[in-house]
Automatic annotation (TrEMBL):
The protein's name: nicotinate-nucleotide diphosphorylase (carboxylating)
Reactions that this protein is recorded to catalyse: nicotinate beta-D-ribonucleotide + CO2 + diphosphate = quinolinate + 5-phospho-alpha-D-ribose 1-diphosphate + 2 H(+)
The keyword Transferase is annotated on this UniProt entry: yes
Pfam families in UniProt: QRPTase_C, QRPTase_N
Domain Quinolinate phosphoribosyl transferase N-terminal: 38-128
Keyword S-adenosyl-L-methionine: no
InterPro entries named in the record: Aldolase_TIM, NadC, NadC/ModD, Nicotinate_pribotase-like_C, Quinolinate_PRibosylTase_N_sf, Quinolinate_PRibosylTrfase_C, Quinolinate_PRibosylTrfase_N
Highest taxon listed in the record's lineage: Bacteria
Gene Ontology molecular functions: nicotinate-nucleotide diphosphorylase (carboxylating) activity
Xref: PANTHER family: NICOTINATE-NUCLEOTIDE PYROPHOSPHORYLASE [CARBOXYLATING] (PTHR32179)
Listed EC numbers: 2.4.2.19
Annotated metabolic or biological route of this protein: Cofactor biosynthesis; NAD(+) biosynthesis; nicotinate D-ribonucleotide from quinolinate: step 1/1
Length: 304
């Protein structure tokens, strides 16, 4: 695995093995079979030519994904059997940037810089787009006590990077996959016969796993709590109904203990603050990862 730089301060960063896999797959797509080749760069630039390049923001936003830059450069250098390039990060992931800001400076063999260009831009632009979108939600919720959560609606293969980007934008990760948290939804309830039966089945089969339950009505919320659930997804509720359900759950916490509440479904930025002020702990937003446009970034060769 390659060293990573430019991470969000205090954050462990995305899983290095996951980043290595996605970089390898991206380079395979771009360079073709075996070690691969760039027929333009390798025809016009000699292997021992060295140079520098700036990674630059072409739009305002929040930067994320600089951790992938050295990984891509190292992978390209290995494929071309050339020396490693170096990266000087100017601003860390999670930083608000303006159009024209230099994010990082790269130095090394020009072949390595140019062969790596599109792959590192694709990944960093994608991550920065997710972080930028997430920051809008985090800003909208500021002061309410509610946090914005991501979902599993991620780009296949990019989950580790996209969930890291959510954190860079001020959001919070929900479960990483189907393996770490049980989430009882309407189809599970239908299959099991009831909310209670579904919760009991999960507890019997996987006793150490946290259980979250989706509720469409106040009655379902009450049933889930009675069954022992302490995390509810309040799904597709209009704001007045959501407020009533939250109030009912909070009133019962003297007996049940603390219940974490998440609003989910049909959430938009223009109603985010009103939803948060109902007293929920979280708003989950699949659009953070499935609908974020990229943040336009560029790699500008400065010397050759």
């Amino acid at each position: 695995m390659s060293d990573v730089v430019g991470g969000l301060p205090g954050d462990p960063g995305p899983d290095p093995a996951a980043i290595d896999r996605v970089v390898a797959a991206a380079l395979d797509e771009d360079l073709g079979p075996g070690a691969g080749r760039d027929v333009t760069t390798q025809a016009t630039i000699v292997p021992d030519e060295r140079g520098a390049a700036d990674l630059v923001a072409r739009a305002d936003g929040v930067v994320a994904g600089l951790v992938v830059v050295p990984v891509v450069l190292d992978a390209v250098a290995r494929r071309l059997a050339l020396p490693r390039a170096t990266v000087e990060v100017v601003v860390p992931d999670g930083t608000r940037v303006r159009r024209g800001d230099v994010l990082a400076r790269l130095t090394g063999p020009v072949q390595v810089l140019l062969v790596a260009e599109r792959t590192l831009l694709n990944l960093a632009s994608r991550a920065s787009g997710v972080a930028t979108h997430t920051r809008r939600w985090a800003d909208a919720l500021a002061g309410t006590g509610a946090l914005v959560l991501d979902t599993r609606k991620t780009t296949p293969g990019l989950r580790a990077l996209e969930k890291y980007a959510v954190r860079c934008g001020g959001g919070t990760n929900k479960r990483m996959g189907l393996y770490d948290v049980a989430m009882v939804k309407d189809n599970h309830v239908a299959a099991a016969g009831s909310v209670t039966a579904a919760v009991e089945a999960v507890r019997a089969r996987f006793p150490g796993v946290a259980i979250q339950v989706e509720a469409d009505t106040e009655d379902q919320a009450r049933e889930a709590i009675a069954a022992g659930a302490r995390f509810l997804l309040l799904d597709n509720m209009a704001t007045p109904l959501l407020a009533r359900v939250v109030a009912a759950v909070r009133e019962g916490e003297a007996a049940s203990g603390r219940v974490e509440l998440e609003a989910t479904g049909n959430l938009t930025l223009d109603r985010a603050r009103d939803v948060a002020l109902t007293g929920v702990d979280y708003l989950s937003v699949g659009g953070l990862t499935h609908s974020s446009p990229i943040l336009d970034l560029a790699l500008d060769l400065t010397t050759a």
